[in-house]
Amino acid sequence: MGFFNKLKEAALKEAKKKIMEELGLGGDDDETKPTMTAEQFEKTKPDELRKDIRMIFGCQDRQTSADVSNVSSFQLPDPAGKAGGACTSTLLNILYADEHVPEDDLSFVEVLEEMRIKLKSGGYSQIPQLSSMNPIDVNTKFDLVPDTATGTRRAVMIGDDPGELSGCWNDVLNMKKYIIDVHGFEEENIVILMDDGIHTEPTKANIIDAYKTIIAQAEENDAIFLHYSGHGTKLRDDDGDESDGYDEALVPRDFQTSGMIRDDDLYELLFKNLPDGVHMTSLFDCCHSGTILDLPYLFKGDGSQTEMTLDPNMNLDAFIEKLTGKLMEFLQAKMAASLSL
């Protein structure tokens, strides 16, 4: 961690220490902090963190993603060749095999656990997961777009295929057909960035512009779907907000000259200006995707959970300060809630 990063981390700790001292609770000793339940978090978190944002992903932060060598084995078309991302291909195999939807509704639990079973049978170690800004009843119907999203449906779909990940184009084209056929997205409201010589290149500037535009266009009751199939990576955390010391990042086509798109950048692009009442679902099929959006609630589809819970590894204080700048108000509310127990 560099000198300026240490200063930022020290400033955050000092702010927390002062608030706790004002409440008569001593310093910033981690062992004295109360454990926060989901109920307490929902009562005390700032209103900016009540937006409807969800993410589906196939890797924990320490894992890399994988290609499947032949998408036909997943009962999927192969418009750009045979390969496809394991996460996207498996999800579509459950939701859209042979271009048909299941006869019966499936819950989030059923979809994610079925994904894990199929991935494991294929020799993949990935654990499909769902994260969210707000708690979700994972035993309810799985849907990329909820019934309450009655407005315009827009999507940004990115496939960056440098050769090592030969399935990225298939991921985008197959998922595009699914959201059009099943969820009523219209072609004119879908932006595709792919390095196939046909679509707009997935450069850093183009990705940022596409994300800014879809947020600017959104209105209450609209739905946004973001799909990324490409390279992901980890970089040294540059602002002291990651518990593991690393930021997760997307790797655009021109990363060598323009740099990566960090999770901190995605906060600024996607969260802060998202209008209230807009539903956003993201699917990131890339390496180290686990906390690319750092959402506080988590459900793992490996049979270890029966409900969505707060991510025990997440730095909620840093998350709130980053998104809202209201760390002081949150800590005061959190400590007051703990005293009332």
Indicate the mean pLDDT: 80
Outline, from the CA principal axes?
Answer: globular
In the predicted model, the low-confidence regions spanning at least 5 consecutive residues are 1-7, 23-34, 61-84
Secondary structural class: alpha/beta
- The percent range for helix content is 25-40%
N-to-C terminal Cα separation, in Å?
Answer: 38 Å
H-E string: HHEEEHHEEHEHEEEHEHEEEHH
Q: Strand-residue fraction?
A: 15-25%
CA gyration radius, whole angstroms: 20 Å
**What count of helical segments does DSSP give?**
10
Provide structural commentary.
This protein is an alpha/beta fold and 341 residues long. The strands form three sheets. An eight-stranded mixed sheet has the order 6-5-7-11-1-4-12-13, sandwiched between helices. β12 and β13 form a beta hairpin. The longest helix is centred in the first third of the chain and has 20 residues. The chain is globular, with a radius of gyration of 20 Å. The chain starts with a helix and ends with a helix. The N terminus is likely disordered.
